[in-house]
Design goal:
Elements lengths: L1 H30 L1 H26 L2 H19 L9 H24 L3 H17 L6
């Protein structure tokens, strides 16, 4: 009987410890909401810059598109900071800084995308492409 009682007491004690430690970890995650989102936003911005630098090395247009989408993700994550309850003035200034950096980067990306004359040339070849590869473009 004593062993059963001690086992039951240990079970209650261990479950109580998990219950006490559980909400604390959730609180720590919620407290750092704005910080983690800003960090993710800065990471996306750095990836966008890396893709843009890679474009100058390889001259692949896909790198420009990857840079654009990474920049858009950075802006989205910066916008999500306003939903956090722990935001402060420093977060507001960091978000504004990210907006400025990303808009400048997006202007550079747009400047390096195809010009209208190149688009018209590629449209001329697109008709021939459809004749050769019928099933590729649906």
């Amino acid at each position: 009987m004593k062993k059963l009682f001690i086992g039951f007491l240990l079970l209650v004690l261990l479950s109580g410890c998990e219950w006490i430690s559980g909400p604390r970890t959730i609180e720590l995650i919620e407290i750092r909401c704005a910080e983690t989102r800003l960090d993710a936003s800065f990471e996306f911005h750095l990836k966008a810059k890396e893709f843009f630098q890679s474009y100058y090395k390889t001259r692949k247009e896909s790198e420009l598109f990857f840079a654009w989408y990474a920049s858009e993700d950075s802006i989205y994550m910066a916008n999500s900071v306003r939903r956090c309850f722990d935001k402060k003035n420093k977060h507001f200034h960091a978000v504004r800084n990210l907006y400025q950096k990303n808009t400048t980067l997006q202007r550079l990306i747009v400047q390096n995308m195809r010009q209208d004359s190149q688009v018209q040339l590629s449209e001329l070849y697109l008709d021939e492409y459809r004749d050769i590869f019928v099933r590729d473009i649906q």
